[in-house]
Every structure is written in C-alpha cells, then in structure tokens.
Amino acid sequence: MTTEILLAGFGGQGVLFAGKILAYCGLMDSKELSWLPSYGPEMRGGTANCSVCISDQPIGSPLVLTPDILIAMNQPSFDKFVSEVRPGGKVFYDSTLIEAEQTRTDISYFPIESSKLADDNELKGGSNIILLGKVIKETSLFSLETMKKGIEKVVPASKAHLIGNNFKAIEIGMNN
Amino acid sequence: MERNLMKGNEALAEAAIRAGCKCFFGYPITPQTELAAYMAKRMHKAGGVFLQAESEIAAINMVLGAASTGVRAMTSSSSPGISLKSEGVSYIAGSDLPAVIINVQRGGPGLGGIQPSQADYWQATKALGHGDFQLIVYAPASVQEMVDFVVKAFDRADKYRMPAMILADGLLGQMMEPVSFPEINPDAYDKSSWAANGHKNKREHHIINSLYLKPDELQNSIVERYKKYEIIKETETDAELYLTEDCDVLVCAFGATARVAKSAVNDARAQGIKAGLFRPKTLWPFPVKELNEAAKNAKKLLSVEMSMGQMVDDIKLAINCSKPVEFFGRTGGVIPTPVEVLGEIKRIGGTL
Q1: According to the model, what pLDDT value does residue A45 have?
Q2: In terms of Cα–Cα distance, which of A118, A131, A173, A129 is closest to A152?
Q3: Between helices B56-68 and B79-94, what is the axis angle to 10°?
Q4: Between A144-154 and A163-174, two packed helices, what is the crossing angle to 10 degrees?
Q5: pLDDT > 70 fraction of chain B, expressed in percent and rounded
Q6: How many domains does chain B have?
Q7: Predicted ipTM?
Q8: B151 and B300 share a domain?
Q9: Which residues pair with A69 in a beta bridge?
Q10: Under 8 Å CB-to-CB from B109, ≥6 apart: which residues?
Q11: Which residue in A79, B41, B114, B284 is a FRET match for A46, CA 20 to 30 A apart?
C-alpha cells in the first residue's frame, strides 16, 4: 500500500522540513519512500509544496496529485488542493490561518490551531511540527517513536538544542 | 548496506567523488545547483578540486584540460548550460579524452523554464557538438541509478577514452529517495600511453589534439573511433523490461517519465489490459535488441516522453518500422500523469 502525502503552505512555514521528517520516518521504518519539493520562484516567498510517498513497494511517480493525506498551512493551499484529496482521505489544516468550509463528505477534516498553539507554547515556527503530531495521532502512518527518530535525523547538528522543542510540538499536536 | 536519504543532485555528486573524480568544474543553474553546492562542500575534503568557473564554456574547457592529464574530471549543468558546453564536448570527443558530463534537464528551447524536461534527447544522442562523434548516454530513473550510472559512466569513459553523459531531469535532481553507495574501487585504467601529465625528459611528450589538417588523417582518426562505437553498440546497451512477455501495448519511456509510465502500466494490468514497459537505461547506444525482445508480442508501441517525441524515431528504427509506434508527451516542464498515460494505453489498446 502506498500513502501519498501533500504538504502545502507559504515559503518559510517549514513545509519542506515537515515533509523531510515524514520521509526520514519512512527511512527509519525501512519503507520505500520519495520526497519531491516544488522548486523555483515560489520557494522565495509565495506557495511551497512538497510530495511525500511512503510505501511497501518501489515508488512509481513521486508527484502527488491525489493525496491520501493533505497537510495545509495556508488558505490558498487549502483552497487549491482540498478538492484533489482522494475519497476516504484526510485533511489536516492550521485553523488559526485557514477558514474552512468542510463541504466534502467523503473525506475527514482535522483542524488544529497549530499557529496559535505554537505561539502560546513559545514554539516559534513550530506550527508545521504540531500538524505532524496531529497526523500521527489520527493515522496509523508512523509511531511516536519513529517520528522522534525522524526528527533527530532531520534537525541539523548545529541546531540539536531544538530537538526538544520539536518533540514538545509533536506532543501538543497529539493532545489537541 | 546502509540506506541514506539524498537528493538526486547530491547523490550524483557523492557518487562522482567516490568514483574517484578529482576535478569538478561547473557553473550554477537551476535545477542542478545542489550538485555543484555539494561538490563545493565535499570535494576539497576528498582531496580534489572544486572550481566555479566564470561560465559554462570555461568549465567544460577546464574539464578538457584536466582530463588531458588523466585525472577523472566532471562538469554538470542544465539544458541551456549544456548547449554552451557543446563546443568543448566536441573537442573532448575529438581528443579521445574520458570525461563525465551531467545534464539535469529543464524546459527549452532558449532559456525555456526551470521545470523537468527530456527535450535534450536529440542533443545528447545525436549532436552534442559538431563533427562525427557520440557520447555514451545513461538515463537514470531513480536516485539509486544516478549513483550507479555515475560510477559506470566514469568507468566506461576511461575504458573507451570518450565522454559519457548522465541525462537526468529536474524531477530526479530535486527528489529525495533512499540510496546506498556500493563499495567503489575506481578501476585503475593505465593512462600512461597518452596522458599529458609531465614527462620529466624521460619519454617523448604526449600530444592531446583534435586538429588534423590532412583530410586522410582526420578520416582515419574518425574511422578508428567509429570501430570503437561499434563495439560499444554491441556490448554496452542496457534496458529494463517490465511485464513485456505477453503485452499487447508496449509503453516505451526513460528517466523520470518511466516511473509515471510504470504506474500507468500497473494500473492498466489491474484493469485487465496487457500493457508492458520498455525502459532504456542507455540512450546511446540505444538498446535495439532489448527493444525487439520486449516488443516481440506487442501489437502497438507507445513512446511517452517529456518532449515532443524525440525518442520515437529511434524506436521505429530499432524495430524497422515493423509495428505502429504512437506517441504521448508533455513538454515545457509539464510532467505527464499516470492517469493520462493510462488513458493513452486504453486509446491505443481499444483500436487494436
């Protein structure tokens, strides 16, 4: 089975970083996986998105067009991609920044005030990781243990002191 | 073997360093810049030279110079930059020098765009510069193959004393996949008979040259080179055949597009349509016998490319136009989707 994940938001919100954590989780669990970023002018401000595929079999096309999981971090991304989500799929979104009309009945919506929660807990820029916490709570994609290993892999050595903050953000996501 | 997660561009660079590349000359261009950035960071630690040249033309001529001394040398760029390098590539071929050139393709012509493309197929396989010459051209379809083919490209470049190219694209360059690095033992080819690496007055000096003013001499040098090409055509072709044994529709695709095509073939099979995939791993030499094997029971062939159909003629020639060859492509940086390719398979399958 292949799980196709699309992460989307503004450049600078940590969309690619969150995608990288999911990719490393796949690596930790000895899965097949691919990570494909949008590249070009949108990375310098504007919208950024990132396709992640996790599977037991080799990945075909790494470009996610009909995601099983959509993680939306801003309104334009939500509006653009929510209609593309595969029936039965799950949408996770930052309800601090996104006003969503939950119009589709064939998918599940998981709003979380991730920006507000990040600010309240002094986790600046942690909204993306809080969303990942919500994802592992509401799906069977990865265990908490795997997620922690993934974070340790992705956070560069020079910023190792931030690993604790990322773990905290995951917990907040799981408990809200 | 340990699995790492790497971007295609970074994996190309790491593989080159492990393959014993000691000189990298380049100039930044999207979507291959991570390759040069990785080289800048790693190459000096590996005892080699990284140099950002003033232009693509300078970079390829530095490769010509370095290769003349017998060291493993490489340059990389993306489509418009490769066009600039074409004069130098021709000189390298004319001087019988080994070198590796990487093209992480983007849309063209002109400055084109920065999204993935395969529209440099003709350039790579037919005319990457003036004169009678060829490059060995490898088309990886995964980050792992980017590693494996770089290693192979350096080896074959040395073995045959000719330039070899990795023809990738922006999608492969930008994506991350698990990759492992095999133990590489850079084969020590004896270059002492030709390398211009200093004679210390102990032997005749070696001359690296591509200028022959006497037509007979130039003709002879080219004919000799073409004898080598014949051997390469016999021995160096490589292709993946997937579900081809009983297929009615044979999809032909290389590189990133082959991944999309494979998804479509699987979807077709799930619906009871007998589709198969032929994926050339070498574009020159084109895997003629492998294609004929794959196509032996097929009723129709479908070439799927990120171009306007540059591989179609090679497919038709390989099978002597014995079966209909149809085409579906996207270009300018648009990536075909499995759904579109499945639609084409059905369209063709339906009119058998």
Answers
A1: 61
A2: A129
A3: 30
A4: 150
A5: 99
A6: 2
A7: 0.93
A8: no
A9: A5, A90
A10: B119
A11: B41
Q: Is A128 helix (H, G, I), strand (E, B) or coil?
A: helix
* Domain of residue B287, CATH code: 3.40.50.920
Domain extent at residue B293: 240-349
Best B143, B145, B175, B242 residue to mutate vs chain A (most A CBs within 10 Å)? B175
The closest alpha carbon to B280, from B229, B331, B333, B318, belongs to B318
Q: What are phi and psi of B25, to 5 degrees?
A: -125, 130
Mean pLDDT of B295-302: 97
The answer to whether the CB atoms of A60 and B176 lie below 8 A apart is no
Q: Could you give the CA distance from residue A19 to residue B214 in angstroms, rounded to a whole number?
A: 61
Band the pLDDT of B337: cuts 50, 70, 90.
very high
How confident is the model over A72-119, as pLDDT tens digits? 999 999 999 999 999 999 999 999 999 999 999 999 999 999 999 999
Substitution target from B5, B29, B180 for chain A, most A beta carbons within 10 A: B5
B71 and B180 in a common domain: yes
Q: What single-letter amino acid sits at B166?
A: I
Q: What is the pLDDT of residues B34-48, one digit of tens each?
A: 999 999 999 999 999
**How would you classify residue B242: left for phi > 0, otherwise alpha for psi between -120 and 50, otherwise beta?**
beta
Q: Please report the pLDDT score of residue B185 as a whole number.
A: 77
The CATH number given to whatever domain includes residue B87 is: 3.40.50.970
Q: Which of B22, B96, B102 is nearest to B66 (CA)?
A: B22
Rounded to an integer, the average pLDDT of A26-52 is 86
pLDDT surpasses 90 at B27? yes
Q: Are residues B188 and B269 in the same domain?
A: no
Asked whether residue B133 is domain-assigned, the answer is yes
pTM: 0.96
Q: Going from the N-terminus, what domains does chain A have, and what CATH number goes with each?
A: 2-174 (3.40.920.10)
| Residue B230: predicted pLDDT | 98
Among all residues of chain A, which has the CA nearest to that of B173? A36
Q: Is B260 on the interface with A (CB under 8 A)?
A: yes
Half-sphere exposure of A162 (CA within 13 A, CB side): 14
